[in-house]
Amino acid sequence: MKLSDISTKDPAPDSTPVLVSACLLGLPTRYDGKPLEVVHLPERFNGRVLIPICPEQLGGLPTPRPRQEFRGGAGAEVLEGNARIVNEDGVDVTENFLRGAQIACEIAKLAGAKEALFKDGSPSCGITRVTMDGKETTGLGVTAAALRKLGIKIIACT
Fold first, then answer.
1. What is the DSSP letter of 127?
2. What is the pLDDT of residues 82-127, one digit of tens each?
C-alpha cells in the first residue's frame, strides 16, 4: 500500500474513533490507582473505536500519585502560562500536565478523533468542574482545554 492509496475523506460519523479517559474503561489509571467501575457508554459510541488515554500518565506522572489542583486558573490559563498545577505535597506538576495534553492532542490528530469522553472533575479531563485553590469550581482540565482548541467535542462523564 502506498500513501496515495489512503483515503483522505473523513470517516462516517459512526466510525470515527473516540478518545476516552482510560479510567472510565476500568483501567487503574486514577490518581489513587484504583479502577472505576466500567461506565455504560452512551449508545452513540457503540461500534466505534475507543482510544483509552490518561493524560497524566502520558505526561510522566506515576500511578498512584498525589492529588493535584489548579492554582490561579484552570486548564485554559495553564495552557497560556498564567496558572499552575500543584500536587498535595506542594510539588509543581504543570509541565507533566502540559506534556500529557500535547501527547493527547497528537493521538487525537493521528487517529482522526473528533470527540472525547472524559472523566469530569479531573485536572486533565475535567469538563464542567475542577479543583482550584482548594475549592471545586467551574472549569476545564488542561487536556480538555487543549482538545477543545483543536475543535474536538468534549463530553463529560461524571
1. S
2. 999 999 999 999 999 999 999 999 999 999 999 999 999 999 999 9
- Best CA proximity match to 118, nearest among 37, 31, 55: 55
Do 75 and 143 touch, CB atoms closer than 8 A?
yes
Interacting residues of 88 by C-beta distance below 8 A, sequence separation 6+: 66, 67, 68, 69
Answer for the pair 94, 61: CB distance below 8 angstroms, yes or no: no
For CA atoms 25, 27, 30, 35, the dihedral sign is positive
CB atoms within 10 A of CB 41: 16
d(CA 121, CA 158): 8
Q: Hey, what's the cell of 142? A: 488542561
- The CA distance from 44 to 101, in Å, is 25
- The pTM assigned to this predicted structure is 0.88
Residue 9 above 90 pLDDT?
Answer: no
Write down the pLDDT at residue 22.
Answer: 95
